[in-house]
Amino acid sequence: MGMAIVLFHLVKRFGSQLISYRILLSIVTLVFALVYLPKPFHLIGLILYLYACLGGLRKWYEGQNIIFPMLLLALPMLFMKYFSIVSFTDDNWWKNTPGIFQITGISYMVFRAIGLYIDERSKPGKINFIDFFNFASFVPTLLIGPLDRFHRFTNDVKNGYQNMTSALTYQGWNNLLMGLLYKFILAEAIHRLVLVHLIDDGSLVYHMSYMYTYLLYLYFDFAGYSLLAIAFGNFIGIHVPINFDKPFLAVNPKEFWKKWHKSLGDWLNDYFFKPLFMHFTKKKWGTSIRRQNSALFLTFALMGFWNGFELHYIISGMLFGVYSVIHNYYFYQCKKQKRDVVFGKLNERWIRIISIVIMFHAVAFAIYIFSGKLF
Amino acid sequence: MKKWFYKFLVYTTLIIGYLFLYVLNVEEFIYDQKDIQVKSTVDFVYQQF
Known about the structure:
The complex is a heterodimer of chains A (375) and B (49).
Chain A: H1 2-15, H2 21-36, H3 40-60, H4 67-85, H5 97-101, H6 106-120, H7 129-136, H8 150-159, H9 166-194, H10 204-235, H11 253-259, H12 262-282, H13 288-307, H14 311-337, H15 348-371
Helix pairs in contact in A: 2-7, 3-4, 3-6, 4-6, 9-10, 10-15, 12-13, 13-14, 14-15
Chain B: H1 3-23, H2 27-30, H3 33-37
């Protein structure tokens, strides 16, 4: 990755007339995939599949229903998820099939392709393959995000070498430092010095200790990884969107998903919750609050299934859905009755503090279930 | 928080953390070697294919 950054800066200084930024980005991505990633040809095959689907859908599919395009684009990911829970013991010709779909970054590439299809489906013209390739397989964010948007990313690529300013490099340096601190010092210390030494005696104290320690570990590890991805993007002139922003200060589930894995929260909101809610509204299904709550719950349930078909992922996703439904209903009742139905006339500052404490513990419990420690 | 103090804190934690975790392997001093060998692993569950 470091070599790629140096290469970009050298080309910017000495060879920007010889090779355009987007071509350089494609070459670097391709070389990186061929040298460092397992199954690079599977990855290229997936990109070709997604691009062919996008082209085909844009050309021939005129329906307004987005479920079919979403399923078509998500098909390789669905196969991968399915094969991850099914074991092949027979010596049949399909025994190697699961491996075909285990491609690095498959989930995020599929998510990007779905977002691109929904955003660009009404716009005329073809999507350039090089632009799609760069967007879908942008190496720093390939594995765990953050999830970017095609229009925003392509604008950065168009600006190319001009974006590689000293201000953005400085921002990248700060992100790099924080990423290193989070992932390799704080998360590592929590993991090595506390988490793995907790003795499982089945007591409540053990489970509580594990719950809070695991939450902190996951936060520092994931946020650190995201910061490193953002930093590498910054170094080559790409403004990768932020993924974490003080999530433990969130006062409700809606705010939490604007602060924790923000890019996934935004993606789910734009490409799943909103279309689903609109679909329910079009069908005039139930009351407005019922439609909202159903769409919310299904969105988080989907997130659970996306994490894996194991029970702990699904229940954790559903639990986040339940939190959101409770909060949405509380918000609806406050609006309806024109008063705070839970806190009454309590001081706003105290409401905020109590909300933060409740939210923190609710998240800790949901993440604890997500960890798979309980079942 | 003053900017210079924040930066000082980040750099200091990085350097001291690196020394303790990667050079001195501090857990060897805190826990018995036996404990370290039997420790469980935590999956990087969010890292998707």
